[in-house]
Design a protein that fits this description.
ten-stranded mixed β-sheet, 26 helices, globular, binds nicotinamide-adenine-dinucleotide, six-stranded mixed β-sheet
Length: about 800
């Protein structure tokens, strides 16, 4: 048989290698040794480490391991460049971003080849996905730069941003960080991951050629220590981190109390849910992309297959057949499906996890087919026979390993999907749109793809819930993450409050000096819609400004907080109550408070000596304001270039702990609970430690205003110790704390276990009476955005 006839018989792939020459020439032009790129120029290389091609083990270049001094030099350059860069008009900054986007397109092939050589991902992916998305990100943000002054009129850039990125999408993660930062007027110091610094260095050179002013983009290479030096640098205003949850938690702790802005894009263990009515072939193709794209080294990889029991067998059989046709090999070959993993340590880590999973009972199936003998390659693997506790189900593997489980009912699918500490993404396959759109809101994840997977676009926010981090990249919310309110810099230190009385053991003595005939006048706490006595036998005196006893409240402890959190979790149905109903209830609360305004004003006067009339009136107005917002602060529908729409849905955080300020006994609490409730959160409130009686009075108003039980819970006592308990409680999703700088630091540090979102006043005088707090300042902090991708248009 002649060759052509043979090829027709076997239909084998021929070799289709991409040429490395251009990338090699660029590396050679730098003598294969790189310093950092600081203030528009290359520094002399310092102590270096090798950057290897994981597909063949060859060393591509020597990279400088950045020291704390290098980081300091870069921060100084970025600081010096900031006034000039931020003073440019949005249009001028936009033009630079546009020039960068054009330059990336012009050098697309060089970037793609260099990325594949450095990272090991198939050239098909770097060429068709990574680099086009990088260009798209700069184009998109060129537009934002110009429109910021109208769209975010009350905002300013942070200043110098420290950005730390992982190795799985080296240039794309850089673009996600640098494009919005620059659009907003920030300057940056970015550290690429140690395995994959090369495209970041090429990018720096390209920025320079595009005429970007010196010091606006600084690239410092290095390992974890270099990242740490960025995180700890005193003159950095915001840290943006993408990487593992483990390091994300370290960074949360290290930045606690510094006032640095922080966004964390962390790990995931995303469910891929296939219902029995799904288009099975499409679901299989989607799954191949979900878990074997970039060798599974994808934060949002659909690594947990949840397939409906009725189709499980057929689905798994088909999947195995498809796995057999995946081609593992040289990533520079254009017809390779699965390339090399980033480094040998990753290969070893994954093998180790698989051994642990197997020892725990997992059955591991690996696709047949050749794998190169040399280089960091692994076969695509499918894991079955696992329970939710198996290591392979619980841990992020970050490799080409799919774990499969089955479910019977939609409820069970949701329960399994949410049974993880992560919440980055989820995929749902069903031909029944009612079913898919019923499941999407029930999944706790920042991105949900319906009948599709791994769709990304600059116009659509990306980021996680729970331990997958907080903050978004892309979309309006991603843009907002690089801006802060203009007025924040003018905040003064809050005046020190006089010490609160120490708690005493309650002895049934007369407690109300206004009426000595009453015995137990200790105001109760309010938990699960009921008045509750404190767990401890202690009470806390409430004094008037002259030090006279005017009442007592319970001294709340850990157990009271636990009860209150449990009640708040049980009341989370509030989040699915319609926004209209929530608004009605807040209006009703306002109305009932207004009926009793004289009594509340008198109570404020008794506690503070101030005329409380205005504070009560403002509290009623604040409730009205947020009742008005309940059905207006909502999402958007994005129109990405992918035959899909993305519905950006605003969702509540869940259970919020709120520790109110000492001053403004009524308005301080109302200003914080009203936005939280309006957005569908349930609340555990610790009222002013010094003047808590306004809130223990308020629950009588709450009771008569149709607020469902458990939606508002009130625990009185010492703000700092109760805040600590709330911060450490994994049932609390968000925590707002008004208090000293020291206690704010404690709250931010203590909140790392489930990475709850925090807002703290850090000892600054936030005047909650100011009407600037009537709007999106707190609404945005009480919510997170879920982007639901839905096929749309042919
Ligand atoms: P990693 O956390 O080990 O490293 C990420 C970066 O942080 C690297 O640049 C590293 O040098 C640096 N670093 C390490 N220790 C540090 C420290 N103590 N202080 C400061 N910086 C430090 O993560 P990785 O292994 O490079 O990347 C894989 C992880 O990234 C996975 O968990 C993946 O899910 C996650 N990821 C998340 C997203 C997202 O958008 N959510 C995207 C891509 C990757």
């Amino acid at each position: 048989m002649n060759k052509i006839a043979q090829i027709f018989q076997s239909l084998d792939y021929g070799p289709a290698p991409e040429g490395p020459e251009q990338a090699i020439a660029w590396l050679d032009s730098h003598a294969r040794t790189f310093g950092h790129f600081i203030d528009g120029q290359w520094t002399k290389p310092g102590k270096t480490f090798a950057s290897d091609n994981p597909a063949n083990g060859e060393t591509l270049a020597q990279i400088t391991d950045g020291t704390a001094e290098d980081v300091d030099t870069a921060v100084k350059a970025a600081r010096a460049a900031f006034p000039g860069w931020s003073a440019l008009s949005g249009y001028q900054r936009g033009k630079y971003l546009y020039a960068i986007a054009r330059a990336i397109q012009k050098h697309a092939r060089l970037f793609a080849v260099l990325e594949t050589m450095d990272n090991g991902k198939p050239i098909r992916e770097s060429r068709d996905i990574d680099i086009p998305l990088v260009a798209r990100h700069f184009y998109h943000h060129a537009g934002w730069a110009q429109h910021l002054s109208r769209e975010f009129s009350d905002a300013v850039p942070y200043g110098v941003c420290g950005q730390i990125i992982p190795w799985n999408f080296p240039l794309l993660m850089l673009a996600w960080k640098i494009a919005p930062a620059l659009a907003a007027g920030n300057t940056v110091v970015l550290k690429p991951a140690e395995f994959t610094s090369l495209t970041a260095l090429l990018f720096a050179e390209i920025c320079d050629r595009a005429g970007l002013p010196k010091g606006v983009v600084n690239i410092v290479t290095g390992e974890g220590d270099t990242g740490q030096a960025i995180v700890n640098h005193q003159d950095i205003d915001k840290i943006a981190f993408t990487g593992s949850t483990e390091v994300g938690k370290l960074i949360r702790a290290a930045t606690a109390g510094t006032g640095k802005g922080l966004s964390l894009e962390l790990g995931g263990k995303s469910p891929y849910i296939v219902f029995e009515d799904a288009d099975m072939d499409s679901a299989i193709e989607g799954l191949v992309d979900a878990i074997w794209f970039n060798q599974g080294q994808v934060c949002c990889a659909g690594s947990r297959l949840l397939v409906q029991e009725s189709i499980e067998e057929r689905f798994i059989t088909k999947l195995k057949k498809r796995m057999a046709s995946l081609r593992v090999g040289d990533p520079m070959d254009k017809s390779i499906d699965v390339g090399a993993l980033v480094a040998l340590v990753q290969v070893e880590r994954i093998k180790d996890l698989m051994q642990r999973g197997a020892a725990e009972g997992a059955v591991i199936y690996e696709a047949d087919g050749p794998v190169p003998a040399k280089g960091c390659f692994l076969k695509p693997a499918l894991v079955t026979n696992v329970s939710p506790a198996n290591t392979l189900v619980a841990e992020e593997i970050f490799g080409p390993v799919l774990v499969a489980m089955s479910f019977r009912t939609p409820e069970e699918a949701v329960a399994l999907a949410n049974n993880t500490k992560y919440g980055l993404a989820a995929t749902i396959w069903s031909e029944n749109i009612n079913l898919a759109l019923d499941i999407a809101p029930k999944i706790k994840a920042g991105v949900v793809w319906i009948n599709g997977t791994n769709n990304f676009d600059a116009a659509v926010g990306f980021g996680g819930y729970k331990e997958s981090g907080f903050g978004r990249e892309g979309g309006r919310e991603g843009m907002g993450a690089y801006l802060k309110p203009k007025w924040e810099k003018d905040l003064k230190a809050a005046p020190k409050s006089s010490p609160h009385p120490e708690p005493v053991e309650a002895q049934g003595r007369a407690t109300n000096p206004l009426d000595a005939s009453h015995v137990d006048q200790t105001a109760k706490m309010y938990i699960g819609g009921k008045q509750a006595r404190p767990d401890s036998a202690y009470t806390r005196a409430v004094l008037d400004p002259n030090g006279k006893l005017i009442g007592e409240v319970g001294e709340g402890n850990r157990k009271d907080i636990r009860n209150a959190v449990e009640a708040a979790r049980a009341a989370l149905g509030w989040s699915t109550t319609s926004a209209h109903s929530r608004a009605q209830i807040l209006y009703f609360l306002a109305e009932n408070l207004d009926y009793r305004r004289d009594e509340f004003a008198a109570r404020i006067k008794a506690q503070t000596g101030e005329d409380g009339t205005t504070e009560v009136a403002l509290s009623v107005e604040r409730l009205f304001a947020f009742a008005g917002w309940a059905d207006k602060y909502d999402g958007a529908v994005h129109n990405p270039p992918l035959r899909a729409v993305a519905a950006a849905m605003i969702e509540p955080l869940g259970v919020m702990g709120i520790v109110a300020p000492v001053n403004l006994p009524l308005l301080g609490s109302i200003s914080l609970i009203a936005p939280a409730l309006a957005m569908g959160n349930t609340v555990v409130l610790v009222p002013s430690a010094k003047s808590p009686l306004s809130l223990t009075d308020l629950y009588q108003v709450v009771e008569t205003s149709d607020v469902p039980s458990g939606v508002i819970n009130i625990v009185t006592g010492d703000s700092v110790s109760l805040a600590k308990t709330l911060a450490e409680h994994d049932g609390v999703d968000g925590l707002w704390f008004a208090g000293s700088a020291e206690a704010s630091t404690m709250v931010e540090k203590a909140s790392i276990s489930n990475l709850k979102q925090t807002w703290t006043t850090r000892g600054l005088a936030f005047d909650l009476a100011d009407r600037r707090f009537e709007g999106d300042y707190f609404l945005s902090k009480a919510t997170q955005v879920k982007n639901v991708w839905i096929p749309y248009g042919a």
